[in-house]
Structure formats: C-alpha cells, structure tokens
Amino acid sequence: MMNAVAIPLYEHNEYVRLEAYLLHSSNEFQVGRNRPAVIVCPGGGYLCTSDREAEPVALRFAAQGYQVFVLRYTTYFKEYVPDLAESPPGNPDSAFPQPLYDLAHALLMVRRNAVKWQVDPDRITIVGFSAGGHLAASLGVHWADDFLHERFNVDRELLRPDALILGYPLVDHSLAMKAEKDESFRKLVYQAHFGHSNPTPEERKARSPVHFVTARTPPTFVWHTADDDLVDARNAMKWALALAEHHVPYELHVFESGVHGLSLGDETSAAEEVHVNAGCSIWFELALTWLRRKDIFLR
C-alpha cells in the first residue's frame, strides 16, 4: 500500500509543494525499517515542472522501496504552457535563488519528518532532470554557503544531499542551450531563471554550479545523450571532470543518441515516440546499481 499526498512547503502557497509517495509499513514485512528517500526535481526550463519527469519517476523509485518526494518548486508559470506565444504573465519570484530555497526547505522537511515518514535521514538522494538537474547540482555545491545558512539557521550538514542523480543537467550556462535559433524561448528561460532575458557572462558563471564543485559536493550519477538537441552533453562531462578534480566519486554515462527530455526513456513517461529509447532507458537500472554501491539502498 502507498499513500500519495501533497504537502505545501509554505503557508498560503499550495503551488510550491512536495508530492509524497510514501510506502505503507505492513506488519508482514520490514517492520520499523526506515527507507532511503529520493527527492525528484523535474525539469522544464524553470518555466514549469514537467509531469513527465515527476510521477512516472517517483513510481519507479517507489517500486524499488524508496520513499519518494516530487518537488514542485517555484517556476515562471504554474503549469505547462503548450504555446509559449500565448503564455500567461510570468512569476518574477521564479528567479534564483528562490527555487534553491525551495529545494533546501524540502530536504529539511524530509529530514525533520524522517521518523513520521519512515525515512533514513542519512540516505536522501536528489534526482534532477535538465533545469531540475541544475537545481539539484546547485544545492550540491551551495549547501554549506552562508546565504543558505542564514536563511534557514540550521546545522549546514542538514542541507547536504547524500547523493545526486542528474539526468541531462544544465550545469554550465556557457554551454547551456543549443536552441539559439529559437531566440524567444531562450530569452523566456533566462527571464525565468535570472530575472531578465540577457544575463552577462559574469551572471551566467555565478549561476553555473560546475564552477563551485568542492570535495564536499555529494557523489553523483550523471547521464546525458551525445546529440541532445537542447542542453550540450559537455555539461555532464564538465560536471564529472570537476568531481574528478576534487576526488568526489561519480559515474558518468553519455549515450550516443537521444532527444532532450527522455525522462525514463520508455512508454511510462513518453509524450511522443522519440521519448521511447531503449538504449537510454537503462540509465535507471544503472543508477540503482550505483546507489547500491554507495549503500543508499533498501537494506
């Protein structure tokens, strides 16, 4: 049995929330056993949080014994907008660091409710896709920074994820978007993320987590596709190289071919045929094997 419940992160704001998928503790098995947890950060260019990278991913992890939380963090729009030419007014509060505050708050909430939700507070992985990968990586490098410590006034270690899983992440804004031909889309994404549509090179660098990796950055499993048509695969490679330079454990997979936004790469998360990619869908099993080696698995 599984309980699914939406948990607002803030009073009077149901939009920013955790969608929890909590496994029931039956007396027939696993009595009193705390489970590892994952917090899923869907992508969406900070314009929305993709449903394709939310519940399908959550259910796959729940089937492996994880307590799962999907974070609907602050974005420019409250939901997916199929035609950006007719988009509603945007939310100026979507600019960084607000989404990072949301993720840090979510991690604290899971740790503070670890007993209630039967979570092992020392085995919490952040899973992020695309812009959600940028968000997860940002917490991975900034968790000990003063601005987060001052915001939450807690032991800095409580804000450190135990591991990261990044799918086709954006971690370096100098490599970020191949869709330069779609100038309006690029400007809208920058408006959502930076608060204006034309960030300077200095602003891009400041929002590129790859430049802030240290020896305390969490171990990371990262995957990408070599011909990603939106986010350059060198993002994943540069993240792995930065981890290697600081002796942080990592596993990197760059698959030869696949469109951006594959999610699970099978029918359960596909919006169209190109999202079904058997060559890439193995990322999930590879990630589980990696989590086992890191002992972030159901014991």
TrEMBL record:
Q: Which residues form the BD-FAE-like domain?
A: 33-236
Q: Which domain of life is it from?
A: Bacteria
Q: GO molecular function terms here?
A: hydrolase activity
Instruction: List the keywords (alphabetical).
Output: Hydrolase
Q: Which InterPro entries does this one have?
A: AB_hydrolase_fold, BD-FAE-like_dom, GDXG_lipolytic_enzyme
One Pfam entry for this protein is BD-FAE
**This protein's name:** Alpha/beta hydrolase
- Organism of origin is Cohnella soli
